[in-house]
Amino acid sequence: MTDRTQLLQTFDALLQPERFRDYGPNGLQVEGAASVRKIVSGVTASRALIEAAIAAQANTIFVHHGLFWKGQDGRVTGWMKQRLALLLAHDINLFAYHLPLDAHPELGNNAQLGLQLGLKAQSRFGEQDLGFLGERIGPGGFETAEVLAQHIENKLNRPVALVNVAQRAIRKVAWCSGGAQSYFEAAIAAGADAFITGEISEPQAHYARECGVAYLACGHHASERFGAPAVAAHVAAQFGLAHEFIDIDNPA
User: Fold this and answer.
1) Which of 162, 158, 138, 137 is nearest to 149 (CA)?
2) Is the pTM of the predicted complex or chain greater than 0.90?
3) Would you say 241 and 38 are in contact if contact means Cβ atoms under 8 Å apart?
């Protein structure tokens, strides 16, 4: 076991949340047991994840998407009441790190997504340097964006939405996990041949067609499955704690 406060200090030292302008609070969002014995990591603090953590006999949860966001209704009713009631009844700590988890250069969502896809980051781009830009590990790139899309589908086991008109080889690849469609213009300016993220909105299809840069949307959840377990496992190992990643499937 380890002390909850020491665990929080370790997460904060690793992820440096003070560096980021974020959409909600990073760190300990719900206080539970003072002594931590097991961490369950996941993408989102959904009721299903909380119930799975209880079944796994964990008293600490570490996620990317926590419970609280700027601008949300502050009343504790409905789904919020249900999630909080479970956490409080079972004395479970909830740690959540949003943009700091995206950005960590080795263990974060973008770094781990690149690792999964065989991409090596060479530079950063976009607001708060969240976007990664690099190339395929090994000789050559991808013959076409269609080849890249198939590669992503094979690695993430889900369909990819592709917008591509250029029909050229892909050398420079930009990526930013989750709902980072607003980073597409910065990726184009950075010299990318293709941009990978979780979602696509209406404007990006036009930008892709007009600028000749391929756009690939592989799912918000699918692109952010890797950072939370990487960080939680790393910190759990430091303290000799048990850790388990529980993936609650999400088609988004």
Assistant:
1) 162
2) yes
3) yes
Residue 109, pLDDT score? 98
pLDDT in tens, 144-189: 999 999 999 999 999 999 999 988 999 999 999 999 999 999 999 9
Structural domains in the chain?
A: 2-102+226-245 (3.40.1390.30), 109-223 (3.40.1390.30)
The model's pLDDT over 56-114, given as tens digits with 9 standing for 90+, comes to 999 999 999 999 999 999 999 999 999 999 999 999 999 999 999 999 999 999 999 99
